[in-house]
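Team,

Forwarding the record for the chain on the shared tracking sheet. I've put the sequence and predicted structure together so nobody has to dig through attachments.
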Amino acid sequence: MKKILTAAFLLFNLLLFGCSVKYTANSVTTLDMSSKEICVIEDTRVRESFLPAYRTALEKKGFAVRVLNPGSDIASCPLTSTYTGRWSWDFVLYMAYAEIVVYRNGTKVGDALYEAPRAGWALTTKIYEATEIKIAKMVDQLFPDTESSK
């Protein structure tokens, strides 16, 4: 009986905690920012909706955003960012994975990650949130000390 209860408890925890969206970040501190301009290196392999959403989220935080050509050097600007994203299908197309990395003078100073559960095991409708909402949450985690200019 104890084995059955233990197995049921483990299954319950897996369903409850292993099947939700995950945001993680290593925040950029104000000491890591030498200016309010950030250069974003465009990644043409990522869906077109990502870059405008990222740009808008950064601008709401008070940044002036300059988009650089794909393949630009991460040391091209004092504060530079790269990004990647992947979409999946489950009734609708949704952003399933995203990573944003921020560099100061070519050295990594922060990153943010978003992951949806794999293989349709989500027990939450949060996977269907708009790309703009997910990216805004990532930017808020990346730059928590930066005031929004909403």
